[in-house]
Amino acid sequence: MSEKSCLFPTYARFPITFVKGEGSRLWDDQGNEYLDMMSGLAVSNLGHAPESVKQKVKLQLDQLWHVSNLFTIPNQEKLASLLTNISCADAVFFCNSGAEANEAAIKLARRYKQKVLSENKYEIITFKQSFHGRTLATLTATGQEKIQDGFLPLPDGFVYAEYNNSADVEKHINGKTCAVMLEMVQGEGGVIPADATFVKEISDLCKKHDLLLIVDEIQTGLGRTGKWFAYEHYGIEPDIISVAKGLGSGLPIGAMLGKGKLIEAFNPGSHATTFGGNPVITAAAIATIQTMTELFLPERAMELGEWMMGQLTDRLKDNPIVKEVRGKGLMIGIECVHPVVEIIKETHDAGLLVVGAGPNVIRLLPNLLVEKEDLQKAIDVICTKLEQHKTTWKEAVQ
Ligand SMILES: *Cc1c(COP(=O)(O)O)cnc(C)c1O
């Protein structure tokens, strides 16, 4: 492709063009095969082109594509029922992306305080190094300056606390605070799991100060970390949960889930989106959840994740350029002492797809149906590359 691109240059794209995907494999336009350990960023959680989802989407495509949310959409009712069965939530709002799910969460939290409780509260405590999306409100919720750069003025009502530091959260609580919003494992921030005590203390603080607890499960949700939702690892119950990435197996859908007490905060007209939960997209999500349930994929992610993390920890423990291997389930990060973009390019050349998380972390997000042998192959390539870089990075270590 030598022609000038007509796209805004919003992405630093790798020079690979994929033309076909199946299971854990992708093929580029040169006929090269790749083992995919990023799943389109935690999206293709059943692998590429999963048969069970494809069948249901095709059936729906033959029936009806779109009608508008002014009518009952049976697939939406069914999907909402499935989502409330696998979570602690009681009601669902469908949208088209993660950022939109978080927008809905922010709006619901504010509206509950202002309309149901008649309190003038709007401030949301989020965290440094968090990631919540790219709309104006969600990039403001995101505690990373580089993501906010050049977009002033930002909407009011977000303050940032130190992650894994509940004392710092407490310091930020005041008469305007309405909610705390966090990821259970910071994804884009570098695969940083929340500490168990931190999450428990946050949950207690929310109860004590009557704050809503919003958990952003857009990357961690739907089995990725070894539970349907990562909050389940912590024995807490959030008030609001946002999901998106893995929900539609690659078709765009987001959802905001909330507890029963929040239902009356929204009424007809208070929030909406044209495409949200359309018949085709919800068919894909129903099939995704049904497949995950039938095949016990959260449990599978837990088992395979523990095995993989053990292998990586063991093989990398004496490598001086590796700082830490961490994660939950099949969401694993390898933190290095140096930016990893070169290593990521080298793994591409070796037919393996992995992705960064922040500058120094190699992130692994295999699909949840991945074969153990394929995980083994990925481990071998990554450990070999990191072994080779031991000498080239020597100066960085010293
Ligand atoms: C990807 C992601 C988002 C944003 O989702 P989009 O679909 O890109 O808008 C928000 N929060 C977290 C934790 C994410 O990983």
UniProtKB/TrEMBL annotation:
Any one cellular-component term (Gene Ontology): cytoplasm
Predominant subcellular localization, coarse grouping: cytoplasm
InterPro entries: AcOrn/SuccOrn_fam, Aminotrans_3, Aminotrans_3_PPA_site, Class-III_PLP-dep_AT, PyrdxlP-dep_Trfase, PyrdxlP-dep_Trfase_major, PyrdxlP-dep_Trfase_small
Catalytic activity entry: N(2)-acetyl-L-ornithine + 2-oxoglutarate = N-acetyl-L-glutamate 5-semialdehyde + L-glutamate
A Gene Ontology BP annotation from the UniProt entry: L-arginine biosynthetic process
Obligatory cofactor(s): pyridoxal 5'-phosphate
Note accompanying the cofactor annotation: Binds 1 pyridoxal phosphate per subunit.
Enzyme Commission numbers on file: 2.6.1.11
The protein's annotated pathway: Amino-acid biosynthesis; L-arginine biosynthesis; N(2)-acetyl-L-ornithine from L-glutamate: step 4/4
Domain of life of the source: Bacteria
Pfam family for this entry, one: Aminotran_3
GO molecular function term, any single one: pyridoxal phosphate binding
Keywords assigned by UniProt, alphabetized: Amino-acid biosynthesis, Aminotransferase, Arginine biosynthesis, Cytoplasm, Pyridoxal phosphate, Transferase
Compartment(s) of residence: Cytoplasm
Residues the entry annotates as binding N(2)-acetyl-L-ornithine: R134, T273
Comment field (misc): May also have succinyldiaminopimelate aminotransferase activity, thus carrying out the corresponding step in lysine biosynthesis.
Family as reported in the entry's similarity comment: Belongs to the class-III pyridoxal-phosphate-dependent aminotransferase family. ArgD subfamily.
Protein name: Acetylornithine aminotransferase
Organism this protein belongs to: Chengkuizengella marina
